[in-house]
Write a structure and sequence with these properties.
Elements: E1 4-5, H1 8-28, E2 35-41, H2 45-61, E3 64-70, H3 76-88, E4 94-97, H4 107-113, H5 125-132, H6 143-154, E5 163-167, H7 174-183, E6 187-191, H8 198-203, E7 207-210, E8 228-231, E9 235-238, E10 246-249, H9 254-257, E11 263-264, H10 271-290
Parallel strand pairs: 1-11, 2-3, 2-4, 5-6, 5-7, 7-8, 8-11
Antiparallel strand pairs: 9-10
Helix pairs in contact: 1-10, 2-10, 6-7, 6-10
Bound molecules: guanine.
Guanine is lined by residues 96-99, 121, 143-144, 172, 275.
Length: 295
């Protein structure tokens, strides 16, 4: 079997086009356009690239973008003070504090200071807590997990009753994607560095989400024939045959797994573009809630 390649670029563009159309409609109705504030602390090169991409996406969707940068030496009080100002700014519908924060800043303290109505990343402890509880709904779902489940649904994956295996238990991807899958009535197994016999656990998966940050860890013989594989990893590996001397790969050995799975996301061009698209969607959703828009 050769897997269907799930084209994240195409699916993400559809989500971004919808966000843009919603913004247009808001403008036509005389409503305020959505606004997203980004907070970048320090000079982590990857974080700078991610924040710049998020700001560019805002521009393309007609979302106003408010960029804030603080030095790596910023104090807890300075970061939380900025967040409080953004909480109070009526032009701002979403506040995104790029993670990881430089040490010794207290990440949870900063995330907790974001108003839950503006928590478009969905990382506020209340939003995460609601995601984990039956009969409760978070105001926002974290963007990468949301993108993973959105893709799965769009390609028609039956999640109810399926065996889903999540490799990785990070706060940003592994744990929230597992919670989302439970909400879809999947039977979810979360694996991590202490799990025994990962290949055997993975072979039981109808849906396999790889989010461990280990290049090409998931091999072809780890995957059940016909499984759907979502690769969240972004790892740079040396490749002398490549013009740059290196290239990006996921957590999945793509060339092997695509021969076994029924569908697979590539890296790059799979989950990555979905993260930004879901952020645009969450920001528009927030602006609609703030202005009592019901469509
Ligand atoms: N760092 C890696 N992914 C993310 C994300 O989705 N949001 C934020 N704020 N930081 C990140």
């Amino acid at each position: 079997m050769t897997a269907t390649i799930i084209d994240g670029k195409v699916l993400a563009q559809q989500v971004r086009d919808q966000a843009k159309a919603d913004v247009e409609k808001m403008k036509e109705m005389g409503l305020r356009v959505p606004g997203l504030a980004t907070v970048l602390v320090g000079d982590n090169p990857a974080s700078k690239v991610y924040v710049a991409s998020k700001q560019k996406a805002c521009g393309e969707a007609g979302i106003e973008s408010f960029g804030h940068t603080l030095p790596a030496t910023a104090t807890q009080e300075e970061v939380e003070g900025l967040v409080r100002e953004l909480n109070a700014d009526p032009r701002v519908d979403g506040i995104l504090v790029q993670l990881p924060l430089p040490s010794p800043l207290d990440e949870e303290g900063v995330l907790k200071s974001i108003s839950i109505e503006k928590d478009v990343d969905g990382f506020h402890p209340i939003n995460i807590g609601r995601l984990a509880q039956k009969g409760r709904d978070p105001l926002f779902v974290p963007c990468t997990p949301y993108g993973c489940v959105y893709m799965l649904k769009l390609i028609g994956t039956k999640l109810e009753g399926c065996n889903a295996v999540v490799l990785g238990r990070s706060n940003i991807v592994g744990m929230p994607v597992a919670l989302l899958l439970v909400r879809e009535n999947a039977t979810v197994t979360i694996c991590h560095s202490r799990s025994k016999d990962l290949p055997a656990i993975c072979r039981g998966a109808d849906v396999l989400i790889a989010a461990v940050g280990r290049a090409q860890m998931v091999r072809g013989d780890w995957v059940k024939p016909g499984a759907v594989v979502i690769d969240v990893g972004i790892n740079r590996i040396d490749d002398p045959t490549h013009p740059k001397g290196s290239r990006l790969v996921g957590d999945v050995m793509y060339d092997e797994v695509k021969e076994v799975a029924s569908a697979i996301t590539p890296v790059p061009g799979g989950v990555g573009p979905m993260t930004i698209a879901m952020l645009m969607r969450n920001t528009v959703h927030s602006a609609k809630m703030a202005q009592n828009v019901t469509w």
